Amino acid sequence: MGLLWLPYMATAIRFIRSIRKRIP
Hints:
Elements: H1 2-22
């Protein structure tokens, strides 16, 4: 099950980073 969370966490991190770039 841990392996299934890896892609989910990676997607969440990329989404958060994208928002941070939009809001300095």
